[in-house]
Amino acid sequence: MESTSFDGRRHRHRGERDNVIGSSTQRRSRTPHNHHVSRRETAKPVRLPFGQSRLRKRDYDAYFTLFADYLDLQKQLELSGLSETEAKGRWKSFTGKWNRGELSEGWYDPKTKQRADAHAAEEGTMRSTKARADTSNDRQLASRPMTDAQEDGSDDGDEDFGPSLPSGQRPGLQAPNIQELQLRRELETGDRESQHAMRKLDRKEEHSVTQARLDELAPRAAAGTRDRQIEKRRDAAFANKTFAESKDAGVAEVPESDLLGASGAEEYKAEVQKNQRKQSEREIRKEEVLRARAVERQEKVAEFRRKEDKTMEMLRELARERFGAGG
Questions:
Q1: pLDDT at position 9, please?
Q2: Averaged over 294-305, what is the pLDDT?
Q3: Are residues 109 and 134 in the same domain?
């Protein structure tokens, strides 16, 4: 009796478990299908303002001006200054926002695109007109003879009535200021550096030419070979032997004419005069700098005195207005 009840409970539990497994299997099998259906139902096409259509990659040329205005106003960027890769990336982002309807409604307005196209066409016309005007002016100036310029100068002189106004600058030479002196020093320094570089390059070329000629007369062995090492040792031994012989023989007396040349005294005098000229040039430059500083100092003092006189005059005027009536 007990075994029969136990078997019944076991069969009942097994049936409940099969029902649970079957229902869960059906639920899992239906879940992906329902999920895809819900996604297809929610993915509705976006209705763009003003009935605009979606933009694609090939619409770049048609919407070029509107895209340029968008970058200028929204991103503070100039489309002409972007690289091709960056421009493509910006256009892809713009089309994505356009197709999703994320841009402001004004960008979808057809009038906005018309204004952008008209503005771009107007700028292109102005640039072409200015280029043609500049070209024609250059041609006129190039083909104009000197006599026309002289005649125009005489005509301008006939139209002037009365004496000419005096110029603000006095005639004659003026002392250079500090900026002009500094510019001149920079130019001189640049010239010296360029000359030094040219001389160094000339010496290098001359050395290479001489070495090439020596190689043609007495070709060397290939570098890294045993013959080349033997040549180096032979050259070093010859140099040491020559130095030892000259040291043992003593120093021979050499006349001054051979040391300084036939005109050694004249060359020495010329060198002394050259050094004196350099020293005098340095003194002249120093005097010019001091003179320019003195002129600037005088101008600053005069400006300070003018301001001081103006302030004192204003104080006197205030004193007259306040105490003059009472006195």
A1: 53
A2: 90
A3: yes
* Overall average pLDDT of the 123-131 stretch: 67
Q: Does residue 64 form part of some domain? A: yes
Within 10 A of 211 (CB to CB), how many other CB atoms are there? 11
Evaluate whether residue 248 is within a structural domain: no
Do 153 and 264 contact (CB within 8 A), yes or no?
A: no
pLDDT confidence of residue 149: 45
Is residue 155 a part of any domain in this protein? no
User: Measured between alpha carbons, how far is 123 from 144 in angstroms, rounded to an integer?
Assistant: 31
Quote the tokens at residue 269: 């005098």
Q: How many domains does the chain have?
A: 4
Query: Does 213 share its domain with 238?
Result: yes
- Count the Cβ atoms, other than its own, within 10 Å of residue 120: 15
Residue 37's pLDDT band (cuts 50, 70, 90): very low
CA distance 187 to 210: 34
Is the pLDDT at 161 greater than 50? The verdict is no
Amino acid at the residue 200: K
Residue 148 belongs to some domain of the structure: no
Residues 214 and 297 in one domain: no
pTM as predicted: 0.32
DSSP state of 58: G
DSSP 8-class letter at 51: G
pLDDT of residue 153: 47
Clarify whether residues 62 and 136 are in a common domain. yes
Contact 288, 175 (CB under 8 A): yes
8 Å CB contact between 55 and 99: yes
Q: Which residue has the tokens 């360029």?
A: 194
Domain limit, last residue, from 29, 44, 59: 44
Boundaries of domain holding 12: 1-44
Q: How does residue 20 score in pLDDT terms, banded at 50, 70 and 90?
A: very low
Buried-exposed string 215-253: b where 16+ CB fall within 10 A, e elsewhere: eeeeeeeeeeeeeeeeeeeeeeeeeeeeeeeeeeeeeee
Which DSSP state fits 101?
A: T
